[in-house]
Design a protein that fits this description.
The protein is an alpha+beta fold. It has two domains: 106 residues, Beta-Lactamase, CATH 3.30.450.20; 51 residues. Strands 2-1-5-4-3 form a five-stranded antiparallel beta sheet. A hairpin with an 8-residue loop joins β4 and β5. The protein is elongated, with a radius of gyration of 21 Å.
Amino acid sequence: MDTSISYSNQPSLLQAILEGFIDGILILTDQGEWIHANDCARRICHQLSKGISQSERVPKEIWNACKRLIESLNRYPHQILTVEDEINAGQATSYRIRAQWLNLEQGHPPCVLVTLEDRFQSIQNAAIAEARRYGLTPREIEVWLCYRANYSYKDISSKLYISYNTVKKHMKSIHAKRQTILNTLE
């Protein structure tokens, strides 16, 4: 039973869509064989493998979530389940894993769809959107990005080579701009 998907030199619509996602998308058999991975998923898997060349091998942190999903099929055969997990892969690197069943083709066994969300990237995207909404200056944007990534004021000052008091001044300005926008929405 062949569950692989073949891709020609021309990317299919599905492949183009999967590559366009910000999150990593990994499609696996229930045996852990790769059917597809977008560039983001390949990058995350490579990082979790600590650079050890394991092409098309699922890192154990991701496979553990997949195994829980596969094991749940016996206990809850008629329920649609999603297994979620969080991986901390370093000081500022954290991934949210979601594993769920995916039926690609009629008559073939379901596959495991894994989404890998880079939590720092998500926070950064939200902070950039907020910065635009609040009308922040370029320097305030830098401070806000660090703040949203849970840096302390002291860490922000060190990272951006500004004084602690300058960080406080920027944060006061940012909070004032935020409050102005929030007041107009009420």
